[in-house]
C-alpha cells in the first residue's frame, strides 16, 4: 500500500492514532485522570474506536490498527487496572503483528535490498512497535528482537546507510529522488530508531552491537550537520547528490518534532545520555537553544499542532529541558508558549495536527507533565 493510499484508509478509520477519534479518546482520558470528565465519557470514546474489526494486517502499526488502539488503551490506563482484559487481548495481537514484521524485515536484509520507510519508522514501522513494547511490556523478548533488528538496519549497505530507502520522503517512487534518500527525522527517519535505541539503553534493555549502532547513527548525523550563523541544524533528509557534493538546504528547516531540530536534537540528547557522551548531549541542547533563539526559524512555525507545529516544539523542548542542567532552557520555553497560543485551534480532534494533541500538550505544560502516558508515541522520553 502506498503512503497516500494508507493515509486515505486511515482518514476513514476510528483506529487511526494520528487523527480522530483515538486522539479525542486520549484527551478524554487525560481529562478524566485530572477529574475534569467522568470516566464514562472515556469508555464511550474508546468503544467508538473498537466497533469495527481491528486491523492486524501489513498496515498495522503504532499509529494505525490494533497496535494503535492497544497503545491508546495502555496510555489511558496509566498504570491502573482499567481496560485490563481488553489490553491483554490486544497485546497478543500486537505481538503477532510485530513478529511477522520482524521476520519480513530480516528477510529483506538477507536479500541486501533497501527498506521502505514503513519497515522501520516511528509512524508505520518497527520503531513504532518498539515504542509500544517499551511502554507496555519493556521486559518483552519482542522488544529485544526489534532492537536487534534496528542494530542490523543501521549497518551500511554498498556505501550508504542501511536505512537509505529507494523512495521519496512521501513513500513513493519520484523523479525528484531518483536514487532515494536517507531521512533524518523523528517521524519517518533515523531519529526515531535512535531515540528508541537510546531509551532502551537507559532502561537496561540491550543487545549486542546496540551501542555501536547508536554511535553510527550519531556519526552520520554529524557528517550531515550544517552550521549556520551561530547554530547547528540538520537537513530533514539527504539525497545521493547531497551525500557526495554537500548540497541540500542552505537554511535551517522549520522547527518541528517530526522533521526539525527539536525532534532530532532530543534524539541526540538521549543518545548522549545513554552513552555517557557529555559532548553529544551538550551539542544537541545547544542546537535546540540556538533554534529557539532564532526568529527566522520560529516564524516558520505556522500552526499549533504536535507534528510540525508549536505544540510539538514546546513538548520536545520540555523533555530536553528536563534532562539538561537546571534553568538552561528557562528563557526559551516562554516564547514557544506564546507562539502556541497565537494560533486558532484546529478544526478536527486529531492527536498529531488537531485540537486533541494541542490540548494534551497544553495540559502537560500547565500541570508540569502528563497524567496519562500518551506522549510515549512521540519517543521523546
Automatic annotation (TrEMBL):
Gene3D superfamilies: 1.50.10.20. SMART domains: LANC_like. Pfam families: LANC_like. It comes from the Bacteria. InterPro entries: LanC (IPR033889), LANC-like (IPR007822). This is Lanthionine synthetase C family protein. It comes from Saccharopolyspora cebuensis.
Amino acid at each position: 500500500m502506498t503512503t497516500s493510499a494508507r493515509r486515505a484508509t486511515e482518514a476513514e478509520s476510528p483506529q487511526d492514532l494520528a487523527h480522530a477519534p483515538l486522539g479525542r479518546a486520549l484527551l478524554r482520558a487525560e481529562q478524566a485522570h485530572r477529574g475534569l470528565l467522568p470516566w464514562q465519557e472515556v469508555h464511550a470514546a474508546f468503544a467508538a474506536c473498537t466497533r469495527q474489526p481491528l486491523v492486524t494486517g501489513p498496515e498495522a502499526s503504532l499509529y494505525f490498527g490494533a497496535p494503535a488502539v492497544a497503545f491508546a488503551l495502555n496510555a489511558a490506563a496509566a498504570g491502573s487496572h482499567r481496560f485490563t482484559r481488553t489490553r491483554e487481548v490486544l497485546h497478543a495481537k500486537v505481538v503477532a503483528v510485530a513478529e511477522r514484521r520482524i521476520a519480513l524485515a530480516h528477510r529483506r536484509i538477507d536479500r541486501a535490498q533497501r527498506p521502505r520507510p514503513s519497515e522501520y519508522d516511528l509512524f508505520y514501522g518497527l520503531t513504532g512497535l518498539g515504542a509500544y513494547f517499551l511502554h507496555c511490556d519493556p521486559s518483552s523478548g519482542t522488544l529485544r528482537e526489534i532492537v536487534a533488528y534496528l542494530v542490523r538496519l543501521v549497518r551500511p549497505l554498498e556505501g550508504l546507510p542501511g536505512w537509505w530507502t529507494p523512495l521519496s520522503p512521501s513513500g513513493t517512487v519520484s523523479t525528484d529522488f531518483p536514487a532515494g534518500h536517507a531521512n533524518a527525522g523523528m517521524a519517518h527517519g533515523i531519529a526515531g530508531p535512535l531515540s528508541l535505541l537510546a531509551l532502551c539503553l537507559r532502561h537496561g534493555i540491550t543487545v549486542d552491537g546496540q551501542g555501536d549502532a547508536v554511535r553510527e547513527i550519531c556519526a552520520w548525523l554529524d557528517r550531515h550537520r550544517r552550521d549556520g550563523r551561530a547554530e547547528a541544524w540538520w537537513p530533514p533528509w539527504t539525497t545521493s547528490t547531497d551525500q557526495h557534493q554537500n548540497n541540500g538546504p542552505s537554511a535551517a528547516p522549520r522547527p518541528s518534532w517530526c522533521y526539525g531540530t527539536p525532534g532530532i536534537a532530543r534524539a541526540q540528547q538521549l543518545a548522549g545520555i545513554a552513552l555517557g557522551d557529555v559532548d553529544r548531549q551538550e551539542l544537541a541542547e545547544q542546537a535546540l537553544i540556538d533554534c529557539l533563539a532564532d526568529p527566522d526559524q520560529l516564524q516558520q512555525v505556522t500552526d499549533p499542532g504536535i507534528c510540525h507545529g508549536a505544540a510539538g516544539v514546546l513538548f520536545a523542548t520540555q523533555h530536553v529541558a528536563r534532562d539538561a542542567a537546571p534553568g538552561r532552557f528557562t528563557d526559551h520555553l516562554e516564547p514557544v508558549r506564546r507562539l502556541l497560543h497565537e494560533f486558532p485551534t484546529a478544526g478536527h480532534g486529531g492527536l498529531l495536527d488537531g485540537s486533541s494533541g494541542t490540548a494534551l500538550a497544553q495540559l502537560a505544560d500547565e500541570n508540569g507533565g502528563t497524567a496519562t502516558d500518551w506522549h510515549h508515541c512521540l519517543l521523546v522520553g
